[in-house]
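Hey, quick one: can you model this chain's 3D structure?
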Amino acid sequence: MKGAGSQNASRLAEALNPGVSKRELWAWAMYDFANSGYTTVVLTTVFSAYFVGVVAAGRDWGTLAFTCALSFSYLVVMLTMPSIGARADAKARRRRFLFISTAGCVAGTALLALAGPNDIAIGLLALAISNYCYCVGESLIAAFLPEIARQEALGRVSGWGWSFGYFGGMLTLGLSLAIATRGEAAGLPAQAYVPWVMLLTAAVFALAAIPAFLFLRERSPASHREREGMWRRLSNAWQDTRENFPDFRMLLLCGAFYQAGIAVVVTLAAVYASEAMGFTMAQTMLLVFTVNIAAAIGAFAFGHFQDRIGHKRALAATLAGWILMVLVAWAATEAWVFWLAATLAGLCMGTSQSAGRAMCGALAPPQRLAEFFSLWTFAIQLAAVVGPLCYGLVTWATGGNHRLALLFTGSFFVLGLLVLARVDFARGMRARQQASAAFDATAGYKYS
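Sure thing. Here's the predicted structure for all 448 residues.
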């Protein structure tokens, strides 16, 4: 056992960049642990179904209103994140911006507790604020990955973070399930116990995020890029990918497609389970708990597999898995078939999220990590606008046909797979190395 322990410690050390301690890796992964409770409980499980069924009182446009609020927050992220990333790189202050976004998400989540029946305005406003801050923090924490992990270990380290994060989601969901089960057993309506679930989610996020602010280090030098307006920064960054990083640009397009499908699953899984399959809130929580277990296993195991076979092949395999999942869920008329589809979704979610983050880290120039991860955030937030909004429009146009909306979602994964085929990963790595060498040679080379 002692020999096995030392061997595992050696493998861990080989995956980390020089000077990175195991404590710092743990602190970085703890942020994934912290923010996963928000997506699991607020977006996927509890508040989404609660808003449609209770806050909006079952109105036909409830799902569309929920997706519009999220789409608005994603749109604001798209417009502001490249500028935030560039400013964080300019003065090497990613951790400061991370703290601000975390405080905003925690406060917004706590405000969701105020949303009761017909409190539509406060529910949508708090949802938009909390989700915006969550997305900013998710982008900033991802930018630390290439500093922590060696190039050849990006897949497995990203997978460690995602798998650890899913356990954080399960912890928050498990505590929420206990509150919901007790409330339902006592005959209480959802508005009596869901506010406590929101406060619990905010508290877990705040406490679990503390290690990231205590132990994460800023390693990349300040880029000292001149401050630019939001639109100019966004335009210049996008133009730069066309001229200097074409494969990173294709990766952004690929991510925009397949993340649209993932956004539907994350945002509307509980709505689909309750509206199309007739699941209760407690059953939906158990379903999402199972999804998180599968996702944790997938992220942890697939990260090692990804480093062996290559980022592009790994991402292609998981997109094929997503297509299969959509077909199984669409065809499901019995509960056990839908449970099977949910397990497949969990495996694919863990692998695709980890694979995309690692691939982005492998192609992003080291002196501009926050900015390029901000472009990645732009792509996935564009997806988060389009995916759930399309789902909401299809259900509205078809009189609540959630099955047809889910089948339409499968097209996003097909398009992502087609775009991925055009990514030349080796060429993208060469562009990254050339950009890094140019920056080092001139001590501040301007790309745009």
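One thing worth noting: Residues 22-55 form the longest helix (34 residues).
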